[in-house]
């Protein structure tokens, strides 16, 4: 008998993949955690029935949430990731030679543990990298307890459901601005322009009310709803479209490159209309 996994991405649309086996399943304090092995995308991390990452396409999301901000900021020494318990964003951050410290704040420690065991290619930087500090705590609480501390903050959240709802709120973005240094940059994943247009417009408006430079950019991630994904960048000083590619470090990446850095801000008209 064939086994298939289906994520209902909206009430009327889903994505389905043939699976060979379920490698892990548990109910943590915060959510249902599963790792399944799919024929098309390899091992897949699923939280509360939603695909978080897969071995086959994870590099797109993790490179694009990280390197745009890191290469826009001239000296990103101290970087924070809120969420991102799979470790992929941290893996990308520590590739940058200018980064001295990368801090992960993840509310669910079991996501970290499960990722280390079943997704070691993604979680490798969480296993003994000298630059990395891991804190198992509420990211919103952490942000509200620090000020003028980070050069770059990445909000690597799940969809705006359950514990992640507060990571899409205006007060949270205000707290991020306070936690950043005077020339700091933030990036948040902001869902699909096809399925989450209202959220993108609202989040862009909120971040734009706080940061003098606010930009939306896109990437193609096959296993995320619609395959077209957005990120919203807020910067106190540096414009990512004016970054000097000649100063970018040479990194081992699969999707992101100096050539693509500025092109991702050239938005299709229907997306551009969401952030007018």
Summed up:
This protein is an alpha/beta fold. It is built from 9 helices and 12 strands.
What does this structure look like?
With 276 residues, the protein is of the alpha/beta class. It has two domains: 3-54, Spermidine synthase, tetramerisation domain (Spermidine Synthase, Chain: A, domain 2, Roll); 58-275, Vaccinia Virus protein VP39 (Rossmann fold), CATH 3.40.50.150. It has nine helices and twelve strands. The chain has helices at residues 58-72, 88-93, 109-118, 120-123, 139-144, 170-179, 197-208, 258-263, 269-272; strands spanning 3-10, 13-27, 32-38, 42-47, 50-54, 78-83, 101-106, 132-136, 150-156, 180-189, 213-220, 228-235. The protein has a seven-stranded mixed beta sheet with strand order 8-7-6-9-10-12-11, sandwiched between helices. The chain has a five-stranded antiparallel beta sheet with strand order 1-2-3-4-5. The radius of gyration is 18 Å and the shape is globular. The protein starts with a strand and ends with a helix. The model has no long low-confidence stretch (mean pLDDT 95).
